[in-house]
């Protein structure tokens, strides 16, 4: 009995054709239903074995055969991360900062990042009360106490409220100058 459709024909009487694969083990006449990889570099290329021979093949299979100890260690580490590259934690922050610094200085793109160096100046040391006092007096370190005393006298005369007719701003400036002088006097006394 055969049914016909336009452009298509088939028969209910013909059984479907089944491809039977023989076992790849030499001298075996069984059906090869079970696949096994041929080698580690071609894991998608298979031998087809019967159940007994696939068991024997799998028992003798050594994925790492022919590899040195270092190669085995490298392969195991690579498989630990599902064969994806990894980077040390926090490293991306350092690279991003170096790249940003390099670009802000107008250097070539990523030159410092590639070399792994940074040409930034060292961070400034925290300011001390002595630094602030020198700024109030308009002086720069290093300086001797005699020069500090001379500068203090000059500024005290210039900013004394009596010379400014009782001006409150002059009084405030003189207070800051006196405080700065006392800080420096104590610092020079401590250091000898």
TrEMBL record:
Gene3D superfamilies from the UniProt entry: DnaJ domain (1.10.287.110)
PROSITE patterns xref list: DNAJ_2 (PS50076)
Pfam families documented for this protein: DnaJ
SUPFAM superfamilies: Chaperone J-domain
UniProt keywords, alphabetically: Chaperone
J domain segment(s): 132-189
Record has Chaperone as a keyword: yes
SMART domains: DnaJ
Start and end residues of each stretch annotated as Disordered: 103-132
Protein origin, superkingdom: Bacteria
Protein name, as recorded: DnaJ-like protein
Record organism: Nitrospirillum amazonense
């Amino acid at each position: 009995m055969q049914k016909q459709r336009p452009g298509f024909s088939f028969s209910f009487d013909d059984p479907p054709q089944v491809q039977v694969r023989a076992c790849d083990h030499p001298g075996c006449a069984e059906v090869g239903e079970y696949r096994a990889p041929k080698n580690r570099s071609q894991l998608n290329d298979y031998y087809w074995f019967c159940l007994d021979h696939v068991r024997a093949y799998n028992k003798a299979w050594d994925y790492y055969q022919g590899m040195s100890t270092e190669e085995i260690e490298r392969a195991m580490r690579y498989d630990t991360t599902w064969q994806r590259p990894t980077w040390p934690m926090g490293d991306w922050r350092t690279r991003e900062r170096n790249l940003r610094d390099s670009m802000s200085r107008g250097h070539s793109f990523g030159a410092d990042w590639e070399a792994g160096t940074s040409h930034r100046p060292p961070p400034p040391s925290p300011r001390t009360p002595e630094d602030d006092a020198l700024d109030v007096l308009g002086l720069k370190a290093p300086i001797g106490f005699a020069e500090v005393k001379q500068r203090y006298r000059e500024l005290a005369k210039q900013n004394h409220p009596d010379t400014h007719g009782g001006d409150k701003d002059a009084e405030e400036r003189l207070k800051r100058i006196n405080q700065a002088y006392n800080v420096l006097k104590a610092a020079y006394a401590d250091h000898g």
